[in-house]
Amino acid sequence: MTKQSEQDNEYMRKAMSLASLAEQEGEVPVGALLVRDNEIIATGWNRSIGQHDATAHAEIQVIRSAGEKLENYRLTDTTLYVTLEPCPMCAGALLHSRVGRIVFGAFDGKAGAAGSVLNLFESQAAYHYAEIEGGVLELECKAQLQAFFKRRRKEKKELRDKLKKGEL
């Protein structure tokens, strides 16, 4: 394993810990962090439900936090680590903020905008180039998401069953 791969795995594990915070808040467990020169400069996790804000994805949280900290929306020479492939909204924001490298864990076959469904990073309309690396700790990131949705489906089924029985 290369030094870069080891470092990517280390940061992805930290992103997974952030995703756990999202899950504790009832959010879809996606976590992200932004690194420049081996220093974490911003962290975030999904907060759309708690903040009543459809744009409060982990990546957007990180972009906002880093911009405030650096006093600049241009996040050049940074690497974003996120547990799930960015959606179109987040991909657009990452391009606008000029993040240099995006490393994600699980692929998103429903809304992935870094190659799974579409690739906004290779679009002719993209005015910025970002290096993309997907599948870092893919199985672990995927398992975290699958476990969350499995629990959520079970809870919904139990609630429906109670409603049918008149227990609520």
Structural overview:
The protein is α/β, with parallel strands linked by helices and about 170 residues long. It has one domain: Cytidine Deaminase, domain 2 (3-Layer(aba) Sandwich). It is built from 5 helices and 5 strands; from the N terminus they run H-E-E-H-H-E-H-E-E-H.
Q: CA-to-CA gap between the ends?
A: 54 Å
Q: What CATH first level would be assigned?
A: Alpha Beta
Mean pLDDT: 94
What is the CATH architecture term?
Answer: 3-Layer(aba) Sandwich
Total domain modules: 1
**What's the number of helices?**
5
Helix content: 40-55%
Give the SSE map.
Blueprint: H1 3-24, E1 31-36, E2 39-45, H2 48-51, H3 58-70, E3 79-84, H4 88-96, E4 101-106, E5 131-134, H5 138-164
Parallel strand pairs: 3-4, 4-5
Antiparallel strand pairs: 1-2, 1-3
Would you kindly provide a brief summary of this structure?
By secondary structure, this protein is of the alpha/beta class. Helices cover 45% and strands 17% of the residues.
What are the main properties of this structure?
alpha/beta; 45% helix; Cytidine Deaminase, domain 2; globular; 168 residues; five-stranded mixed β-sheet
